Amino acid sequence: MTAPVIPPDAEARALLEVVGLQKSFGPNHVLRGIDLLVPAGSVTVLIGPSGSGKTTVLRSLNALEIPDAGAIRIADVEVDFATPVSKRDIVRLRAQSGMVFQGHNLFPHLTVLGNVTEGPRVVQKRPPDEVRSEALALLERVGLVDKADQYPFELSGGQQQRVGIARALAIRPRLMLFDEPTSALDPELVGEVLSVMKDLAGDGWTMVVVTHEMRFARQVADQVVFLDEGVVVEHGAPADVLDAPANERTRRFLHRIIDPL
Amino acid sequence: MRMEPGSTGELIQDSLLPLLTGTVRGTIPLTAISFVFGLILALVIALMRLSPVPLISAPARFYVSVVRGTPLLVQLFIIYYGLPSFGATIDPFPSACIAFTLNVGGYASEVVRAAILSVPRGQWEAALTVGMNYPTALRRIVLPQAMRVAVPPLSNTLISLVKDTSLASTIQATELFRKAQELAAPTYEFFTLYAVAAVYYWVICLGLSFSQSRLETRLDRYVAK
Q1: Which residue of chain A has the CA closest to B144?
Q2: Do A109 and B144 touch (CB under 8 A)?
Q3: Total domains present in chain A
Q4: Do A108 and B145 touch (CB under 8 A)?
Q5: Which domain holds residue A162?
Q6: By C-alpha distance, which of A3, A28, A175 is closest to A99?
């Protein structure tokens, strides 16, 4: 059996494929036809102004939002949202990816270890011994094995977020999703989280990351996707999109990020 | 110690055991049964009220409105004196259990609903992302956290219930207060016997308050001080 720290899908075919994703919240047309291709083992960073739809794209990949139209394929699981989707499809799609939230959303009533083992033990019903040793290996991976028996409130923000990463990895996903994982952190805690993410990328995990950390995008991303008003305005290698943006909207956004005043 | 025959002291002494019997055989089981089933009913009503489907939430809303909008004594009388008109005659004790269960179910459902709503949406979402469905997320993630919020108001409900069970005396159910009435009637020592009964109720409620703080401390172990 492969340990979860060794990522699946070493071969380089598109692990994630998104076609024509549409989503409205009431009169608000948030996604207006998003296409996205993420090769296995690559890191894609989604950037864009607030309200651009980047978080909605990410949440759709995990079926926390159900798109109105379009299709998502992760590995062998494909869901077409043009027709009503069954609960079974949603569960199957969701199981393909691990989600790391901006506000960590750890289960406060469970210990650190309990948070990591909850999914594998209760939902996947894997053998307790195996789940436990795997969870400890994951906590080791994010540098928190000594905190296994503590409760989330006893940890710093950065540590909480790293537990969140271990919890997401524990369900053995094909794809890791990060929704602004460092936005709620004090600046001095951002580094430890980004460094864990960088390590995961180095291990070959396929990752989709919504972030404003341009240094992370530059260093780690294989692909940067700029969204605005629900469409992909521009995408490509970080050097191209971040340093030589072709589109005026991308230029304006990057300028605001780099020089807010 | 031997009391002077017929004195107040002797009356108290002679009443202690019968009143204890009334408490242990009547008040306590009546409270326990009604509270346990009342809580189960409350959870069902609360989940119904939280449903986005009006056909499910509306009956729950109606139920809570009726239970809260009518006196407990009237509810008790309807079940014990009213139902026989429809051919359903129920003994005093089960009648009281049913009335109190239905009453607790209505009141506690509002507590349970608020407690469930107090758990952040992100907890539901995190539960979904680790693969849980609604019932599992509710049982494993949301209810344990909701419990922390619900314990103080549910303790209020329980303590009120202990005292409300005295209403069962009006339908001849044998419990603490009924016993006190029976003992007081031939002696006319109403003050003494009702005072002893009051002390019994108070002691039960003191015990419950103590258990409440123990439980709250236990449930607070995962919260930052």
Answers
A1: A109
A2: yes
A3: 1
A4: yes
A5: 42-52+97-258
A6: A175
